[in-house]
Design goal:
The chain has 20 helices and two strands. A two-stranded antiparallel ribbon has the order 1-2. The protein starts with a helix and ends with a helix.
């Protein structure tokens, strides 16, 4: 596959995303978070921060992509430290949340304790969340067996572990892809800062869990190992967070020419790998179906919202494509899946026609801002957030963390500013990453991010969806900043070589 077919569209789309966030963040859009500074300041500080970090990490010697034993010890030791710090922090500021997460948590608790769940009808509309119920139910059962934590907090511990484990996987992934220890360390550090600072870890839902599935599938792809496990986890990840499958589709598209060529040559190793990957995906479907059966919920497929509902909702100009009660009620009040599909497409067509070309571009611009222009990933601006605060009996310590993460806290602006600076830096340098990436597996990352962009523009835009793709964004950004720094250094070296002899001759 010619790399330009993927690289240039990726560069154009990344430039559009960063440009819209830089120039148009002042307009109104759904789930807009008020930040203390204007966008150019966040971009400038973010770019300088990543550049400075890169200059520091460029001093790490790259040995043909080989990490050393001490690297494993360092990364694992620091990851354990990060995990402990996250647990300490979350213990003092977590709370019970509402919206969809409350249905998943409530169902998981009921399943773990063998009780009835009053909101079972929810899963007929959103059946994909049943696998997450099964995962959370297992976590609660294990926790109850050993009695470590309150059941709710055990889910947060699980998510914190998923986050840190994703970081460890990401370190090895970036080393395999870039063949540079400096890139691996820098990518891992930025991931742990952005991910570790994010308070979304205390919201037991599909975003942080989906991040883990993205990370492990990317790791297995980078290492080119265990195709059955990769296929299984890809399918399970899809049922947890549909966006995970975009990575799988991108891998398939990028790999297809070589696979076809290998099959024609009757390469048994490749044929076996493809067969194992497909078998893994089928096994993932079986696991989901078993989870559905174990849950005991009768899924009424006539009530399930299909892709046409999200397409219709994505074209809702008034709500910027975000979930809203009007579109939800419209689809819920239609009795059959066939009729719902027809009506969804009718309304979608009317909305598309009513916008016109210019209106559609403006709509996409606002959707870009909703999705990409928030380094906190829409923390506290979407959903029914706090429904029950948790008090630990240590108000002085609680105040430290709640001041940082709660909107009425004294340090809340610091949290927002740090998060936004880092994220804007990532968006800016991810453009450059398209110029410096060379490996075929990096093409799969770029194609995934193109697919994510298309998904967000077609359907419901969500800033927290970016959490699931966080490793991909950070990898491209680090490839970009590292490439830029090396390019500047090489140009400066060439300039000095050509300039110094001239100065010597003049002085003579």
């Amino acid at each position: 596959m010619k790399e330009g077919i993927i690289k240039y569209p990726y560069i154009v789309i990344s430039t559009i995303v960063a440009g819209v966030c830089l120039m148009f963040s002042g307009i109104a859009y759904a789930y807009k978070k008020p930040f203390a500074w204007v966008s150019p300041i966040y971009f400038a500080i973010g770019i300088l921060t990543l550049a400075l970090l890169c200059l520091i990490f460029l001093r790490i010697r790259d040995k043909a992509g080989k990490y050393e034993k001490k690297d494993v010890v360092i990364v694992l030791s620091l990851s354990v430290l990060f995990f402990g710090l996250i647990l300490i922090a979350t213990h003092f500021y977590y709370f019970k949340t509402g919206w969809d997460a409350s249905y998943v948590i409530g169902a998981a608790e009921a399943l773990a304790k063998g009780e009835e769940f009053a909101g079972a009808a929810y899963f007929s509309i959103y059946p994909n969340n049943l696998l997450l119920v099964g995962i959370f139910s297992l976590v609660i059962r294990v926790n109850d067996l050993f009695g470590f934590f309150p059941y709710y907090y055990s889910l947060i511990v699980f998510q914190a572990f998923s986050l840190v484990a994703s970081g460890v996987l990401f370190f090895f992934t970036t080393n395999y892809l870039s063949k540079k220890r400096s890139v691996a360390y820098l990518s891992w550090l930025i991931f742990m800062i952005v991910g570790g600072l994010s308070p979304w870890v205390i919201i037991p839902y599909s975003d942080t869990v989906g991040l883990f599935f993205t990370s492990i599938v990317l790791y297995l792809y980078a290492k080119k190992k265990l195709p059955f496990v990769a296929g299984l986890l890809l399918m399970l990840g899809y049922y947890v967070k549909p966006g995970v499958m975009i990575l799988g589709i991108a891998i398939a598209i990028v790999s297809l020419p070589k696979v076809i060529k290998s099959i024609r040559k009757k390469d048994k190793k490749v044929i076996l790998g493809v067969a194992l990957a497909v078998l893994g995906m089928v096994s993932g479907i079986v696991v989901y179906k078993l989870t559905e059966r174990v849950s005991g919920y009768e899924i009424d497929k006539e009530r399930t919202f299909g892709v046409t509902h999200y397409l219709m909702m994505g074209l809702n100009e008034e709500y910027n494509g975000v979930i809203n009660i009007e579109d939800q009620d419209f689809s819920m009040n239609i009795d059959t899946a066939k009729e719902r599909k027809s009506e969804n497409l009718r309304v979608a067509g009317e909305r598309l026609k009513g916008m016109g070309v210019l209106g559609l571009f403006q709509h996409f611009g606002r959707k870009i801002l909703t999705t990409y222009n928030d380094g906190t990933f829409a923390w506290y601006v979407e959903g029914e957030f706090m429904i029950e605060p948790i008090w630990t009996g240590h108000p002085e310590v609680e105040k430290i963390f709640r001041d940082f993460y709660y909107p009425d806290g004294k340090a809340y602006n610091a949290f927002q500013n740090i998060s936004q600076c880092l994220w804007m830096g990532v968006l800016a340098f991810s453009i450059a990453g398209g110029f410096f990436s060379k490996d075929e597996r990096e093409l799969a990352i770029m194609l995934t991010l193109i697919g994510v962009f298309a998904y967000e523009m077609l359907f419901e835009p969500r800033a927290r969806h970016m959490l699931v793709e966080l490793p991909l964004f950070i990898y491209m950004a680090v490839r970009g900043v590292e490439g830029c720094m090396r390019w500047v250094a090489s140009k400066a070296k060439s300039f000095m070589k050509s300039w110094l002899p001239l100065k010597r001759s003049e002085s003579c």
